[in-house]
Amino acid sequence: MHQWYVIKTEEEYKAALARYEQVRESKKGTIEYREWELLTLLISKYGEEHSDLPELDPIELIKIRMEDFGYTASDLVKVYGDKGTVSKVLNYKQALSLNMIRKFSKLLRIPADELTKEYKLQS
Fold first, then answer.
1. pTM (two decimals)
2. Residue 73 lies in a domain
């Protein structure tokens, strides 16, 4: 197991993200799960201190973060559980629900308040 410290550089941040992806589906109670918990905190702290999230509507912000982490809509479906709803949300046909905001905020490391901003739906 890697020895983790407070993330100070972009290089350390990228290493932490890479390891996070390797252990993110670890079983609760394992050492990898505890490492995932620690990485979540370290990555969030670094992100808060170095956040330069642009002023975008929540859906664009989700799409950017998906690209940043190499995620697809399928990854959102795994977290949320409903392919049709995820598709509608990403295509501006349905608004984000509170449950989605919570889950996507955690997965994509986007502050929840960024996902509660108003945006226009398409008819």
1. 0.58
2. yes
Task: Quote the DSSP letter at residue 92.
Answer: T
pLDDT band at 51 (very low <50, low <70, confident <90, very high): low
Q: Could you write out the three-class secondary structure of 17-85?
A: HHHHHHHCCCCCCCHHHHHHHHHHHHHHHHHHHCCCCCCCCHHHHHHHHHHHHCCCHHHHHHHHCCHHH
Identify the three-state secondary structure at position 58: helix
**How far is it, in rounded angstroms, from Cα 111 to Cα 114?**
6
Whether 62 and 110 share a structural domain: yes
Domain check: are 66 and 85 in the same one?
yes
Residue labelled with tokens 């990228």: 14
The single-letter code of the amino acid at 47 is G
3-class SS string, 22-33: HHCCCCCCCHHH
- Are the C-beta atoms of 16 and 32 separated by less than 8 Å? no
8 Å CB contact between 122 and 88: no
Q: Which domain holds residue 64?
A: 58-114
